[in-house]
Queue: 2 jobs
Job 1
Amino acid sequence: GQNIDQPTEMTATEGAIVQINCTYQTSGFNGLFWYQQHAGEAPTFLSYNVLDGLEEKGRFSSFLSRSKGYSYLLLRELQMKDSASYFCARGGRRALTFGSGTRLQVQP
Amino acid sequence: KAGVTQTPRYLIKTRGQQVTLSCSPISGHRSVSWYQQTPGQGLQFLFEYFSETQRNKGNFPGRFSGRQFSNSRSEMNVSTLELGDSALYLCASSLDRGKNGYTFGSGTRLTVV
């Protein structure tokens, strides 16, 4: 992705909590999105942050700090089905600019 | 309501040929954007259309083009196909480019041989 950084891979245990970090270039910022993509499937929308702070949606939460160009996705009570790739994407002039994705492996 | 529909799902073409991919957005969505997904480069922005006008274009050669019709359906065309064009092509439609997110279609898997 263009100036969007996130870890390549993460491993966590079923039932645990995992935090996926994302840093992005702040110029032209128009919101930060998180998407989940299972292998062979389309990305699905998880969350959107445009103001600083935490947004919670069930087991998933997303945080944004605009001044720091930083976001994270927090997944609680991990389930095996959460094994997927997670992309942060910055909204802006070019619709969505994606990070390279974090492949999350949830182990029993 | 129906989601984003992309056709065809799979396509095999020969180098030098051209290909046209189709995307029908969610009813009421006027923004359609296209992305190329490859293992090495991730998701790369191709272009975005809004009300039949190309709003922005990514860093792809002129062989990649697109258009949007009055019913918001969009097509992208790739001419003079190269082996490196093999990828999953995804389109996404959006109502407001913001809090409702972009909804992706299932993609067209293009293989160039």
Job 2
Amino acid sequence: KAGVTQTPRYLIKTRGQQVTLSCSPISGHRSVSWYQQTPGQGLQFLFEYFSETQRNKGNFPGRFSGRQFSNSRSEMNVSTLELGDSALYLCASSLRTGTDSPLHFGNGTRLTVT
Amino acid sequence: DQQVKQNSPSLSVQEGRISILNCDYTNSMFDYFLWYKKYPAEGPTFLISISSIKDKNEDGRFTVFLNKSAKHLSLHIVPSQPGDSAVYFCAAGGGSYIPTFGRGTSLIVHP
């Protein structure tokens, strides 16, 4: 079974631009979550989608948004990029929502904002 | 305010010895806990979990212990192998809570 696929792997953008990251979950997984990882900050929760509906949202500004499609694929968008948005963005899928359904992570998209 | 804390950023252990990684949480409503392992340039992978109704869960060389009264859990790896060298994340949640991750502990196992 194919794992979680994130594209692109690396991205370099300029301040003020916007970016869209893509995530294809494991087949059959309906829950998709997004996390931001920065040095020393661990994994910060961005949002979770289940059946095309946003179920939870983390403490990030409105510049960060996402969506999920009917095939469970998900996209994350960041508008008006800031230098502090440079991070590894991880997508994870799971069979269902809930902490007791372990997350399966992709290898992430490394975003660098200059 | 961090709800899940891994106070040791790094740990160095000799091959064959025990590795003990610690994690503390503050929210008494958390009732499910997981450990993930992350290699460089890869996403985290699920390692082992424990529900609050248990105080121990074992899977091969990996054992997780939960002390609810102290709001503390630990991951024991016995025996440690060089391939275990990675960053280990503790996560806690349950109920309506989304998984909250600690900042990770980098484990280095020396041959």
